[in-house]
Amino acid sequence: PSVPASPRLTSSSSPPERKSSIIKAVLFDLPAAQSVRYVPDGLLVIEAGQVKAFGSYGALQHQYADVPMTHYLDRLIVPGFVDTHIHFPQTEMIAAFGTQLLDWLERYTFPTEAKFKDPDYAQRITAFFLDELLKNGTTTALVYGTVHPESVEAFFAEAERRQLRMIAGKVMMDRHAPDYLCDTPESSYAESKRLIERWHGRGRLHYAVTPRFAVTSSAEQLRLAGQLLAEFPDVYLQTHISENLHEVAWVGSLFPEAQDYLDVYDRAGLVGDRSVFAHGIHLSDREWARLHAAKSAIAFCPTSNLFLGSGLFQLKQACDRAIKVGLGTDVGGGTSFSLLQTAAEGYKVCQLQQHTLSAFQALFLATLGGARALSLDAQIGSFDVGKEADFTVLHPRATPLLALRNPQGTPESLEALADRLFSTIMLGCDRVVWATHILGESVYQQVSI
Fold it and tell me: Over 60: is that where the pLDDT of 7 sits?
């Protein structure tokens, strides 16, 4: 099927020349979990795609009087959003009716993913997918391909063309799936290794070894996934864990020698400081402790967890145990590309457990928290000098309802800012994202119709 292009996105076939520039707007970031940096009349100075200076207009204007300036009046600039778990091949099947996880995979996911053996189809969906990320303010994501190497080749080629910082990997899956989607332990190892050698560390791209989950990988395939991590220690590991109670029970029956679900991965050498486990809803105390000790991360995917009836992630438990957590949209089990909407559902998940997620905490998870979960906090996630200038321009009065809710003018206190951020999260969507910048260059700009 044809995939509609977005008329609001701009791109070029060759990288633009990186010049110095200044952005004047309300600036906000969270340089640490409990730290808020707010500049109501701010300047963001960008040089060669990196943050050169960040501060007030009064303090910086004279130093950069000759540098071209872009004004975002009545807009709020935040670091680019980071999505720690998403499946680009499931874009076409988002919001597919189903029962729960395992049935949903059989009915919708596997047939859709079969199409990605076709490189042309993979390229079309990749372009649409990345357009959707950018129009929702997401500048970095940890992404699943399919079992087909063609899917990952297409994804990396398009991400490289756009100069995006992205992580992706070919799914490894040798059992409990249709024959047309199964590889073998040996082929998955060989194909993943070729992709690592071709793409990992190329520009702003990274590779993630990607066994889908323990149900669909044999012990031998998991062992070879661990061998890849040993051979290439700076690549990532992404997989699923403890999303659904039936899934957890099935894993226990498939791996009776393991102490628990996480131990299945641990025995294969897959639990480390660059491992990101999606969901983690039904974890034991031992698994929580092991994740902390290994410095592994969890992707919190509230829209998917609610849509599939999987359960409520214990964010407070994760925070109390100092485990790295980022937000994941988990498209297509998740129902939105927007990390604002994802954060809004995360707030509700926490409320159901008598825990309150503040607006600042939610934005931390969507920016620097996500960057930390992906071990990219030295490169992205805040406006610290030297970091890459990927950022999102928010319009807190983008819709009539938001305009009614959020009065004109710049918030004068952190309390007023928190209120504006909270309403923007709870009522926000892609219309709130006014512009998205990659390495300082505008790659998406909302237009008035």
Answer: no
